[in-house]
Amino acid sequence: MIRGKLIHPEILAALAGAGHGSKVLISDGNFPHTTAPSIEAPRVFLNLAPGVLTVSQVLDILVEAIPIERAALMVPQDPADPTPPAHPDLLGRIPAGVEVDRILRMDFYPATDTPDLALVIATGDMRFYANVLLTIGVVGTGG
């Protein structure tokens, strides 16, 4: 019997095969899910309709399911642009003590095109820049 809220079979399988340092991308509905991330990473499409499911909802479940060592958020290419409205919400859901990188939009795409990307979860989140790249930590070390 599985404990916790995560019951999606494909996500469970991908996470079970991932290890320390593997990455998980939770992408918003604007992200190029099939072309930007590593072609080798399995994709789970949870983007049923605009706004269903959101990156925040998926992040809440993953925080309970896996140890997170590091996180990265996509930020606008122009540093003069304001903080994306989704970021305060997402930052509030990432566990305390987890370092969060901010990666420029055009650098974020290549950051997801790496062999250590274990899973892409596409959401229907319509908030701009609501993309989170998680690095899996190890159990028992706080990360």
What would you say about this model in short?
With 143 residues, the chain is of the alpha/beta class. 24% of the residues lie in helices and 23% in strands. The protein has helices at residues 9-17, 55-65, 86-93, 105-111; strands at residues 23-27, 43-45, 68-75, 99-104, 117-122, 132-136.
Structure description:
- With 143 residues, the protein is an alpha/beta fold.
- It has a single domain (20-136), classed as RbsD-like fold.
- The chain is 24% helix and 23% strand.
- The protein is built from 4 helices and 6 strands; from the N terminus they run αββαβαβαββ.
- A 6-stranded mixed beta sheet has the order 2-5-1-6-3-4.
- The longest helix is centred in the middle third of the chain and has 11 residues, at 55-65.
- It is globular.
- The relative contact order is 0.33.
- The mean pLDDT is 94.
**Strand segment tally:** 6
- Biggest sheet layout: 6 strands, mixed
Shape: globular
In CATH terms, what is the architecture? 3-Layer(aba) Sandwich
CATH superfamily: RbsD-like domain
Q: DSSP strand (E) fraction?
A: 15-25%
Radius of gyration from CA coordinates? 14 Å
Provide the number of structural domains. Answer: 1
